[in-house]
Amino acid sequence: MGLSIGQVAERTGLSVHALRFYEREGLLADQVRRESNGRRVYSEDDVGWLAMCIKFRSSGMPLDTIRQYTELVRKGAGNEADRLALLRSHQEHIAAQIEELQEAMRVITHKVTIYEEHVAAGTASCLWTTPNEEPGKELSA
Amino acid sequence: MGLSIGQVAERTGLSVHALRFYEREGLLADQVRRESNGRRVYSEDDVGWLAMCIKFRSSGMPLDTIRQYTELVRKGAGNEADRLALLRSHQEHIAAQIEELQEAMRVITHKVTIYEEHVAAGTASCLWTTPNEEPGKELSA
DNA sequence: ACTTGACCTAGACAACGCTCTAGCTTTTAC
DNA sequence: GTAAAAGCTAGAGCGTTGTCTAGGTCAAGT
């Protein structure tokens, strides 16, 4: 039931350093328990919370915002609307990122296509002799 | 036809600082021309190239990788296969990012839904009195 | 003449998110 | 009993990606 920092590191993928760092930064919803000797004992809840933090991070939420969210939760019931606002705003942020990535993907896929043609056409025989021409100018158009 | 650094900043959205920084970092395909007084003069091609760099950056390509790509292009024809490999690898990277974001989006949308219910149900009357309970435990399941 | 504003270089500084070190204690395995 | 492994704190260090400052040049407007 109680996990050591090493075990938590293993199953979250975070380093033990990062785990201590997150704790210092106030990202953990509730105080991590300690053994008599001072070692941290993580509960399953702690691990669950960390998993959520990792999802937040992996979608580009800054530690600072995670801390804000954590603080809301720590304050307990009554600020659900605030939490919701924060979550929604992050949702929008994710959506924007996805769009941006998709747009970049389109552009790059286009470039890839062009290069594929070039490479297929000229593998052994280098036909087009425009050294500094880059199939990327279509971007400016 | 020739643009000042300020004009380029305006139309790329990069700061003049960033433009000089990018140049120092070797991200520009061809040497930026200078006026007799030493001021930079950007061509439309330069701006096009910068637009591409921005797309790369916005999809998470590190400056270092952009520099590698730039170097390939600078070397001229003959390494198209290398450029293609780099682009493809970035394509995969983008795809992975999109998936990660979509996964995070699912999780967060789920949380949002739960909060919406809670907020709708208990706006004025705080019904559920479990202060430290966070609708996020479902993550660990 | 003089001020304003855009530009130049070189280099310091900064935010973010960890990561690592030093120096020490405790636990575990042999 | 002893050595290796794991933990602790406090704080330094670092890679990335810019941003900002200092100190100076240059051109244009008033």
TrEMBL record, chains A, B:
Gene3D superfamilies: 1.10.1660.10. One of its GO terms (molecular function) is DNA-binding transcription factor activity. Residues 1-72 form the HTH merR-type domain. This is MerR family transcriptional regulator. Keywords: DNA-binding. It holds the Pfam family MerR_1. The keyword Transmembrane does not apply.
